[in-house]
Amino acid sequence: MKKMIIIATYNEKDNIANILAEVYKNVPDVHVLVIDDNSPDKTYEIVEQLAEEKYQGQLFLLRRAGKLGLGTAYVAGFKWGLERDYDAIGQMDADFSHNPKYLPQMFETLETYDLAIGSRYVTGGGVVNWSAKRKFISRGGSLYAKLILGIPVNDLTGGFKCWKREVLATIGVDELLSTGFCFQIETTYKAYLNGFKIKEIPIIFEDRVLGQSKMSGGIFKEALLMVLKLRSQRDTFIRVKRK
Ligand SMILES: Nc1nc2c(ncn2[C@@H]2O[C@H](COP(=O)(O)OP(=O)(O)O)[C@@H](O)[C@H]2O)c(=O)[nH]1
Ligand SMILES: [Mg+2]
Prior knowledge:
two-stranded parallel ribbon; 7-stranded mixed sheet
């Protein structure tokens, strides 16, 4: 199984070298695509240098013109992966909230499932160092989406996932409705609606130690409405009749 991971970065100069080292330590043969939105702190320069000097042929950089958002970064990464011969495509944050030690298990899961989700909300999973408010928003958001969409997945808002290429090819990453917070919900929902098998792997999610979160308020209200919109368009998302 040829594997790659997409890491989106915006001002992650303090994290990027360390997270890459941990990723390759855990999955030595993996390819990594970093999508950097022209970070003011020049994260991309560190990636360029590592790609040339340390991880030749295994590390790639897609540098975009400016901050275009996490959802569109992943879409660009999915397309990059689909255009190449990867069988498994992962996505994770650069800030160590998504611990690379879970990657081997997540990729192994793709031998029997189509989508592996690093999940905070199954037995054995959890969150540390988050404020009560942030916990409530995340847990509540996942629960709300789960109930409205009627899907048996507990962590719908997390961004630590590994996909079989077939899933991404089927759901149509070019036609996603959401770019913000809901992006994670929408992709998992569409995988589910198309009959793909989803497995949640328990992870302990730790809040970032270095750098700053780009999460902002206002996103939440938009997400509540987007979930309703996704539900109302449910039938149009079904692309395949699976055996
Ligand atoms: N390329 C790109 N990466 C982003 C953007 N916004 C956030 N990120 C990255 O996405 C990941 C998650 O963002 P973060 O700020 O940690 O959000 P939080 O975990 O929800 O607080 C991190 O690796 C960020 O550097 C963006 O607009 N473009
Ligand atoms: Mg984070």
